[in-house]
Every structure is written in structure tokens, then in C-alpha cells.
Automatic annotation (TrEMBL):
Protein keywords: ATP-binding, Coiled coil, Helicase, Hydrolase, mRNA processing, mRNA splicing, Nucleotide-binding
Compositionally skewed regions (Basic and acidic residues) per UniProt: 81-94
MF (Gene Ontology): ATP binding; hydrolase activity; RNA binding; RNA helicase activity
The keyword Coiled coil appears for this protein: yes
Residue ranges occupied by any Helicase C-terminal domain in the UniProt entry: 549-722
Matches recorded under InterPro entries: DEAD-box_helicase_OB_fold, DEAD/DEAH_box_helicase_dom, DNA/RNA_helicase_DEAH_CS, HA2_WH, Helicase-assoc_dom, Helicase_ATP-bd, Helicase_C-like, P-loop_NTPase
Stretches assigned to coiled coil: 152-179
Biased composition (Polar residues): 95-108
CDD domains per the UniProt record, alphabetical: DEXHc_DHX16, SF2_C_RHA
One GO cellular component term noted in the UniProt record for this chain: catalytic step 2 spliceosome
The Helicase ATP-binding domain, residue ranges: 360-524
Protein name: RNA helicase
Length: 1000
DNA sequence: GAGCACTGC
């Protein structure tokens, strides 16, 4: 309950002695609707029928004085803000209207013209003005709600969140208790290691000297024994280091005799802790020795395994090919160094520390600063702290720092809270979807980029922030790209706002140009070197090549885990099979090889296996998708195999079709992958393509997401931020014109924009939902059809994507049967409701999921999304109501959002044609309607895989389209020979005809 | 009768 509600409640209790939810709502309503206090008083008197005038007077005054001033303040503030915005954007205004008219008239649909001419100009104008007024009133109500809400984790307004916070903070405190001694131990350990390393180096020097000096001198037995002993000690110490580096929990073990010889060939110094700097310099000076060692090992192994290795790939090292040129050009590239991961060192030891003063000075001097720093420089954790120390958080202003991923936001915030010695959620907090861990005391706020984007909706000028840091900007997520344009815009009319854009190499110059030539501040990082090997000739079959390379590494290289990047689940399973087969054939001739797949759709417990430590004397091979590129880090990887492909989603605005296809990766991505091999020690990366291909065939950077996806939601968000001229919005890399126009057209057809391209009340409400515009329209339409409960479930289930059903290859038949058991009359959306409801009935049971081949994790996520959507439904003033599974109304509600996505069976049968666009499409074989082949279909999405498929379909009646989107469909379009001609009024007048389906 | 990379709100 909000603060406002409790105030009303208390006052009411005093006045009439009882209180309930609807009375509170009613009084709230009266306050909002009354023009002045007298009106309010009269209304209260009339409504409550109480005679005690004094009491009513007190009651009214108290509420009015407490609630209304706020409101008028909000209003005033809002107004000035709007004026400011208008002034700021005044130069844009002329083409705003032009642009939207242009985009409007660009659509050649005759239906659209029909829609406009349906109403006379006057009434449509009146309608528009009224709608805009309602829209603004709605926004205002939202603002008020937000203001009163201020659900704070550190206060006990909201009991539930308070308890949660208390629990979390307690855990946090316990963690710290645990961590401090751990830190002490760690620092002692580091010291000892350093000391040991020094001693070992001394010993090594001694031995070398001795051998050199007394080479041809006859030593006594004792002297010889002494030398041998020292050699042995050195060897064992090195051995121990290596064993520990490769395997965290592994204890020292005595290498067997035959393995001994193998180790001699490896450059042991590279394994020693704290030797990376030395190693780095060494490599710079000339790595011949190292390369020779590796080659030698190769040759030796070849001899030994001649019979078992039926194929072998020849690799060439990049440095041999590209020489100095390559090295110089890419001096600061990731592949050459890797970050030192342990931040357990004190803050002072971070590479950023020496730059502190300089950095603060630069920030004071310039409004926008690009920070180019490699991962491991400490920028994410340190810069906000420096800003805090330098007084950027005075006057209740915050420093905001965005991250592309939730985990990053959480863990970095926790880390910084610890460093500053405060409780997480107080001075340092984080804000991610489903979890707001901040309070009014929060000054350093870490959040996901999408979260800051949502914050723009309630605070368009970000007035509570003094600094915004956009971290990991080089990743170019959809949200960061949109943020760029927005923060650039507000920076113009808020000179006091500082902007820091932080990026890893390469892109810095581009960012600088975008932000009006903002200066670039460079911070060095620390990384281990990584050797890059390319194939001599292109590989035709990358899966086969992967398998061969894995085995080649396994038999020729020292112990150390291998990470293989594959495009998808299918390739991973295939590789795993082949590898297991080969392994069986080789039997005991090779060491143990543990194969561990990982991809996001893999159940959590199986994912966890990837992180289990490798047993001694074995090697772990991780077969991963792109998930291992940025999202998760696997320790102790020394070798990376990179076939150079990934699966990429791209959206074709002309066909409205998404495709997920295997494409070559970019150079940036290849370097990122290579960097994963050198996180704990110097690593090696084997690229299954040629150096020539790397130089000439790979793009420098991956195409940014914003140019590859459907932008419906982005455009709606921008519109509701008052940016009308979408087509000229300042994008760092503008998305294709067609994508924007398509998004605008769809929003217009959905009723989110009026014919002038202005946001309507409906559009404003739609923008509140973090879903596709078509889905948010469906959510709002569900009110009319009285099935909001079900639609919220459908929306949540669809948002977790296709990852609801788990289908392991070996139990495919069982999984399919389980899935078929959920089928529902009407189509896939109804099946999803069925799945969710059954799960809910099982008490959200994990066991139930296991039995039914459902992914527990996805269901939990759906539940989270569902809870959030429920909250938002209340926010946009829609009551939650169930239709008791009347599947007609559910499908009608979906149709009113997805009337764009319809298809009709074609004469040949089996195939479908989209109603608009006449594209040939097929029902996805996983759909419950695959065998049924109804005449009219609505699909959730169109995907191009091997064929053009409609995924998630429901059966609809063609006349529903006229009912829900009369402006979009003409009668004629909905008739054809397969569909017997219907009387025009049928859809509306004879609803009972639709009820031929049994209820669920 | 196919086969869904990865985030995020």
C-alpha cells in the first residue's frame, strides 16, 4: 500500500470508523477529481452521508493539504519541464510533423486512408485533442503514483521488501565477516608467493651459474648431489605451481616418470605466479624459445601418437606470419594481454589508481569524457568511488553506472559496497529488473542499461543524477545504443550533468566523434599474453576440425582446460558425440578427457558441471556457445578453439521475418574469444581459419544490435519520452530506415500513435509494459475481453522464449510426448496457459517440471515476469480478471494486438500465405496446430530457419479481424475461395457461431 | 517433420 493510501486510510478510519480498499480508492478518486477543497468537502459529505460537519471539515482539510499541494507541485514541475523540452527541441519541431506525416503517407495501405476518412476532420481533431489531454492526465497520475510509492529498501514502508532487505543485508554482513579474514589470508598468500618466486628465481640462477661455471670441472660426489638436489627442488616447486594453476583444489602430486620428459619442453616460467610481467616482456623481446618448445612438443607427440591420430591440422602462429606489423598495429588488443582477475589486491594496486587525480580533473573540465580502459583496469569499481570522494554526490545527487548484464550490476555494486565499507542497498545500491536494491540514501547506483532507459520514462532529465557512466559501451547492446542518443540530448540542456562513456579499445574514437569530439582518457590494463595460431589452409568442416584440434591439443599440449566456441546447441551435441566416439576408440592411450557442454538453454544443474574443478591428470573440454564469450567466465582455461562462427539474429523489415543464421564472427569478437584463454596464465588460441581470412574476411565489429532487430518497443519508448522525430533521432549507428518506418506504421495501426504521429493515451499506457507493442496492446485489450489473467500469463510465457520445453537428444520421444500432453484446443498460446496453470497448481514444483520435460528455470522466470506484469496492469489501471479459460475471448484479445500477424491457408494446402504481404509460410512442426491446419491462423513470430516458419500459432476466425481492426482490414481481403462468403455483419451479430469450440 | 546464439526491460 502506498503512503498516500495509508494516509487516506488513517483519516477515513478516524472519520467513519471503518475502512476498506474500495473506499480508499473512492476517496483518492474524489481528491483527484475535485477542483478545489470546497468541492471535495461537499462530495465527501454527500458520499459518506455523515452529519458531523466538523469531522468532515477536518478530514477534508487534512487530506487536501497533504495530498493536493504535492499534486499541483508535480504539475507545475512537469509543465516547466515540458516547456524546457520543447524549447530545447524547438528546431526539431518543424520536421517532426513532416516526418511523421511522411511516414504516415508512406504506407500505401488503402485501409489507412479509409480509416482517416471515416471521421470528419473536426471530430477527429477534437478526438485527438481529447486523447492527448487524457494521455497527459494519465502520465500525471503515474508520476503521482511513483512519487508516493518511493518503495525504499531501507525503510519499513513496505513490509515485504523491508524483510527482504533485512535478510539480504544480514547475508551481506555475514559475507563480509567471512570475507575479511579471507582477504587477510589472501594477501598473506600473495606475499608468500612473491617471496617464494624470488627464492626460486635465486635458486634457478644459482643452478644456471653453477652449471655454467663448473661445466667442465670435475665435481665431488657431494657437490654433484647438491646440485642435483637443488635442481630437483626447483623442478618440484615449478611442478607444484603448475599443478595448482591448472587446478584450483588440486594438491601437489608427483608426476610419473614418463610424464616427466614431457614437462621439460615447456617454458615453466610462464606458469609461475606473478611472472606474467616478466613473461610479457620476454614475449615482446622474442618468443622464439616458447614457440620452439611448442613445436617440439608437437613433433614428439606426433611420433608417439602416429597411429591414433588419423588426421591433424597444421597451425601457424600469427606472429610468424604477421611479424612486427601485426604486433605494432594491435599493440593494445585484448588477445595480447588478459586481465588479471583477482581484485583482491588493494585498490591502490589497480592500474587506474595512478590516474585518479588526472581523471577527476578531466571530468571537471569536460562534460563528456570517453574512457578507454581494458577490463581489469578497475574502472567500473573505482571511478564511481573517486567521483564520490570528489564531491560529485553532494546535494543529494547520484552517480549512475550502467552495465549490460544483471549479474554484473549486482556483483560490482556488492564489491564497491564492500570496498567502501557500507551496506549494499544504502549508499551503494543496484537496480535491475525484478530487484531494486536502493534507498533514498543511495549515491552510487549500478544498474542495467535497460533500467536506466525505463528511468527516463519517469524522470526525463535524470535530474537526480550528477554523473552517468555508460560502462561496456563497446558491447553496443540495444539499450546502450538508445541511451547514447538520449544522454547526448539531455547533456545539452543540463550542463551540470557529466557523462562518462567507458569502452574497451578500438571504438573509443567513434564514441568521441559522436559526442562532439569528446576527449578520450586512456587507462592501461593488465593481461596475460595469448598466442594466436591460425590454420594453414581453410577448414571445410569446422566440427570435424574442432574434434581434431581438441585431440591434438590433448595429446601434445601440457595440461590445461580447453574452451571451444560453437554456434549452437546442435553443433555442441554433434561435437560431443563425435568426440566421445573418438575417445572410446583411443581408449587408455590418451589421458582422461571430460567433455562439458554449456549453452543458455541447458538446465542449470548441467551448466554447473562446467565449473566443477578438473580432477588431477585429466583435461576438461568445454563446448560452449557465445555464452562463454562475455556472459560467464570459466576458470583455468588455457586453450581456446575458435571456428569463427556464431549464430546471429537479424530482422528483415521488408518481410517482417526474423532469421537466426550462422555467420562469421567479427575481429572484435575473435579477439574477445581469444582473451578467454589467458585469464589465469598465458594462453593459446587456435583459430580454425587462416590468418588471411582474419585480416580480409572478418568485419572489424559485429553489426550493432540496433541495426538487426525489430524496433517496435524502442520507437514506442522514444515516443513516450517526447522524441517525436524518430527518423532523425541521433543514433550512433542509425538503424535501417525501413525498420523505423515499419515500427511507426505498426504503432499507428495499433492505435499507439495518431495520424500526426503523436503518442495517444493508449500508446502512453502501452509504453509502460516492457514487452513488444503488439503484446502490450493485447494486454490492454484483455481488459475489454475480461481475460487479463490469462493474457498476462501468455505474455509472461512467451517472453521466456522457446526455452520452456526441454528436449534432450536421448529422450526426445519422451519429451515430445510430454509436450503433446499440454496441447489445447485453439492453439499454442492456450497451451502455454495450460502449462503455467498446471505448474502453479503443482505448487510451482521443480519435480513437476522434471517429470514433464519443462525447464524449471524458465518457469521461474515466467513467474517473475508475470508478477511484474500484474503490477504494471494495476499501474495502467486495468483490473485482473479471469475468463475461466473461455478460449474464444482469449484468442480475440490476442487478435486485437496481433492482427498484423495473420495467415490463411493457401489453395495447395499445407502452406499458408500471410494476409498482408502474401508471403508463403509454414506452421512450425512444434506447434500444436501442425497437423490440424486450420484455415486462418495468427502467429506470434515469423522465423527463417530452414524454411519460413510461424512459431506459436492460434486458430482465429477471419471476421474477428474486422471486429478488432476494422481500420486495417477490408472485407475483401478476408474473402477467398477457401473461405465461403460470409454476410458482412456475421462477425458482430452472431457471436454464438464462434462458440463451436468446447471450453478448456 | 524441425532444431531457438546471447542479453535486457
Amino acid at each position: 500500500m502506498s503512503e498516500r493510501d495509508s494516509l487516506v486510510k488513517d483519516s477515513l478510519h478516524e472519520l467513519i470508523g471503518f475502512v476498506d480498499k474500495s473506499t480508499v480508492r473512492f476517496v483518492n478518486h474524489l481528491i483527484d477529481k475535485s477542483a478545489d477543497i470546497e468541492e471535495f468537502k461537499t462530495k465527501v459529505k454527500n458520499a459518506l452521508g455523515t452529519d458531523d460537519h466538523q469531522k468532515v471539515d477536518n478530514f477534508s482539510h487534512e487530506l487536501w493539504s497533504q495530498l493536493r499541494p504535492n499534486r499541483s507541485q508535480t504539475k507545475r514541475r512537469l509543465k516547466t519541464k515540458t516547456i524546457e523540452e520543447v524549447e530545447e527541441r524547438v528546431d526539431l519541431t518543424p520536421h517532426e510533423t513532416n516526418a511523421s506525416q511522411k511516414s504516415g503517407s508512406k504506407g500505401t495501405d488503402s485501409s489507412r486512408r479509409g480509416y482517416e476518412s471515416d471521421e470528419s476532420m473536426d471530430s477527429s481533431e477534437e478526438e485527438r485533442v481529447r486523447d492527448l489531454k487524457e494521455r497527459d492526465e494519465f502520465s500525471e497520475r503515474l508520476k503521482l503514483k511513483d512519487k508516493n510509492k518511493t518503495r525504499n529498501i531501507a525503510t519499513n514502508n513496505d513490509k515485504k521488501s523491508y524483510e527482504e532487505a533485512a535478510k539480504r543485508l544480514k547475508l551481506e554482513a555475514e559475507d563480509r565477516k567471512k570475507i575479511v579474514p579471507k582477504l587477510r589470508v589472501e594477501s598473506r598468500r600473495l606475499y608468500l608467493e612473491k617471496r617464494k618466486e624470488d627464492k626460486l628465481a635465486l635458486l634457478e640462477g644459482d643452478i644456471a651459474d653453477e652449471e655454467y661455471l663448473f661445466n667442465d670441472v670435475n665435481l665431488t660426489e657431494k657437490e654433484k648431489a647438491g646440485l642435483e638436489y637443488r635442481k630437483k627442488v626447483l623442478h618440484l616447486a615449478r611442478e607444484h605451481d603448475r599443478a595448482r594453476d591448472l587446478e584450483k583444489v588440486q594438491r601437489y602430486h608427483i608426476p610419473s616418470e614418463d610424464k616427466d620428459s614431457e614437462y621439460v619442453e615447456v617454458d615453466d616460467t610462464e606458469r609461475a605466479p606473478n611472472a606474467e610481467q616478466k613473461k610479457w616482456e620476454e614475449e615482446r623481446l622474442g618468443i622464439a624459445r616458447l614457440r620452439f618448445g611448442a613445436k617440439d612438443a608437437n613433433r614428439k607427440a606426433r611420433k608417439e601418437y602416429e597411429l591414433v591420430m588419423d588426421a591433424e591440422i597444421e597451425f601457424v602462429q600469427s606472429l610468424t606470419i604477421d611479424g612486427n606489423h601485426f604486433e605494432e598495429e594491435d599493440e593494445e588488443k585484448d588477445e595480447k594481454k588478459t586481465k588479471r582477475q583477482t581484485l583482491d589486491e588493494t585498490r591502490r594496486s589497480l592500474p587506474i589508481y595512478p590516474f585518479k587525480e588526472e581523471l577527476i580533473e578531466a571530468i571537471r573540465e569536460h562534460q563528456v569524457l570517453i574512457i578507454e580502459g581494458e577490463t581489469g583496469s578497475g574502472k567500473t569499481t573505482q571511478i564511481p568511488q573517486y567521483l564520490h570522494e570528489s564531491g560529485f554526490c553532494n546535494d543529494n545527487k547520484k552517480v549512475g553506472c550502467t552495465q549490460p548484464r544483471r549479474v554484473a550490476a549486482m556483483s560490482v555494486a556488492a564489491r564497491v559496497a564492500e570496498e567502501m565499507g557500507v551496506k549494499l542497498g544504502n549508499e551503494v545500491g543496484y537496480s535491475i529488473r525484478f530487484e531494486d536494491c536502493t534507498s533514498e540514501r543511495t549515491v552510487l547506483k549500478y544498474m542495467t542499461d535497460g533500467m536506466l532507459l525505463r528511468e527516463f520514462l519517469s524522470e526525463p532529465d535524470l535530474s537526480s543524477y550528477s554523473v552517468i557512466i555508460v560502462d561496456e559501451a563497446h558491447e553496443r547492446t540495444l539499450h546502450t545504443d538508445v541511451l547514447f542518443g538520449l544522454v547526448k540530448d539531455i547533456a545539452r540542456f543540463r550542463p551540470d550533468l557529466k557523462l562518462l562513456i567507458s569502452s574497451a579499445t578500438l571504438d573509443a574514437q567513434k564514441f568521441s566523434e559522436f559526442f562532439d569530439d569528446a576527449p578520450v582518457f586512456r587507462i592501461p590494463g593488465r593481461r596475460f599474453p595469448v598466442d594466436i595460431y591460425y590454420t594453414k589452409a581453410p577448414e571445410a568442416d569446422y566440427i570435424e576440425a574442432c574434434v581434431v584440434t581438441i585431440l591434438q591439443i590433448h595429446v601434445t599440449q601440457p595440461l590445461g582446460d580447453v574452451l571451444v566456441f560453437l554456434p549452437g546447441q546442435e553443433e555442441i551435441e554433434q561435437t560431443q558425440e563425435i568426440l566421445q566416439e573418438r575417445q572410446r576408440k583411443l581408449g587408455s592411450r590418451i589421458r582422461e578427457l571430460l567433455i562439458r557442454p554449456i549453452y543458455s538453454n541447458l538446465p542449470t544443474d548441467m551448466q554447473a558441471q562446467v565449473f566443477e574443478p578438473t580432477p588431477p591428470n585429466a583435461r576438461k573440454v568445454v563446448l560452449a556457445t557465445n555464452i562463454a564469450e562475455t556472459s560467464l567466465t570459466i576458470d583455468n582455461i588455457l586453450f581456446v578453439i575458435d571456428p569463427g562462427y556464431c549464430k546471429q539474429n537479424s530482422f528483415n523489415p521488408r518481410t517482417g521475418m526474423e532469421s537466426l543464421i550462422v555467420v562469421p564472427i567479427s575481429k572484435a569478437s575473435a579477439n574477445q574469444r581469444a582473451g578467454r584463454s589467458g585469464r589465469v596464465a598465458a594462453g593459446k588460441c587456435f583459430r580454425l581459419f587462416t590468418a588471411w581470412a582474419y585480416q580480409h574476411e572478418l568485419e572489424d565489429n559485429t553489426i550493432p544490435e540496433i541495426q538487426r532487430v525489430h524496433l517496435g518497443n524502442v520507437v514506442l519508448t522514444l515516443k513516450s519520452l517526447g522524441i517525436n522525430d524518430i527518423l532523425h533521432f541521433d543514433f550512433l549507428d542509425p538503424p535501417p530506415h525501413e525498420t523505423l518506418v515499419l515500427a511507426l506504421e505498426q504503432l499507428y495501426a495499433l492505435g499507439a500513435l495518431n495520424h500526426l504521429g503523436e503518442l495517444t493515451r493508449l500508446g502512453r499506457r502501452m509504453a509502460e509494459f516492457p514487452v513488444d507493442p503488439m503484446m502490450s496492446k493485447t494486454l490492454i485489450a484483455s481488459e475489454k475481453y475480461g481475460c487479463s489473467e490469462e493474457i498476462v500469463t501468455i505474455s509472461a510465457m512467451l517472453s521466456v522464449n522457446a526455452s520452456v520445453f526441454y528436449r534432450p537428444k536421448d529422450k526426445a520421444i519422451h519429451a515430445d510426448t510430454a509436450r503433446k500432453n499440454f496441447f489445447q484446443m485453439g492453439g499454442d498460446h492456450l497451451m502455454l496457459v495450460n502449462v503455467y496453470n498446471q505448474w502453479a497448481e503443482s505448487g510451482y514444483s521443480r519435480q513437476w517440471c522434471l517429470e514433464n520435460f519443462i525447464q524449471y528455470r524458465s518457469m521461474c522466470r515466467a513467474r517473475d515476469v508475470r508478477d511484474q506484469l500484474e503490477g504494471l496492469m494495476e499501474r495502467v489501471e486495468i483490473e485482473l480478471k479471469s475468463c475461466d479459460s473461455d478460449n474464444i475471448v482469449i484468442r480475440k484479445a490476442i487478435t486485437s494486438g496481433y492482427f498484423y500477424h495473420t495467415a490463411r491457408i493457401s489453395r495447395t494446402g499445407g502452406q499458408y500465405k500471410t494476409v498482408k504481404g502474401q508471403q508463403t509460410v509454414l506452421i512450425h512442426p512444434n506447434s500444436s496446430l501442425f497437423e490440424e491446419k486450420p484455415r486462418w491462423l495468427l502467429y506470434h513470430e515469423l522465423v527463417l530457419t530452414t524454411k519460413e516458419y510461424m512459431r506459436q500459432t492460434i486458430e482465429i476466425e477471419s471476421q474477428w479481424l474486422l471486429e478488432v481492426a476494422p481500420h486495417y482490414y477490408k472485407d475483401r481481403e478476408l474473402e477467398d475461395s477457401t473461405n465461403k462468403k460470409m454476410p458482412k455483419q456475421l462477425g458482430k451479430s452472431n457471436n454464438d457461431l464462434n462458440r463451436v469450440y468446447p471450453k478448456l
